[in-house]
Write a structure and sequence with these properties.
Length: about 90
């Protein structure tokens, strides 16, 4: 059925009933999720090594912060927790 390489299968968007706008939005969503636009913007110009190190450091710190916040929010939102202030 699919004669397409599996790498490109996720980027395939079907146009149904001539609705090109919906297909275009779906394709943009897929490309944004895979960060294709971000990498294309980075490759437009040369990035000096110290700028690259700084950007990578910032991205890693941002990822760590987001993961920690997500973990803390999941912890707070879970059900059946013991009351942290039993004297109230």
């Amino acid at each position: 059925m699919w004669n397409v390489h599996s790498r490109f299968l996720a980027r395939t968007v079907w146009v149904r009933n001539g609705e090109v706008d919906l297909a275009y939005r779906a394709l943009n969503r897929v490309l944004n999720n895979e960060e294709v636009f971000k990498t294309a913007r980075l490759w437009e110009r040369y990035e000096k090594p110290f700028r690259k190190r700084g950007r990578l450091c910032y991205e890693k710190a941002h990822e760590i912060y987001n993961n920690e916040m997500e973990r803390k929010i999941k912890f707070l939102m879970r059900k059946n927790r013991a009351n942290p202030w039993p004297w109230n």
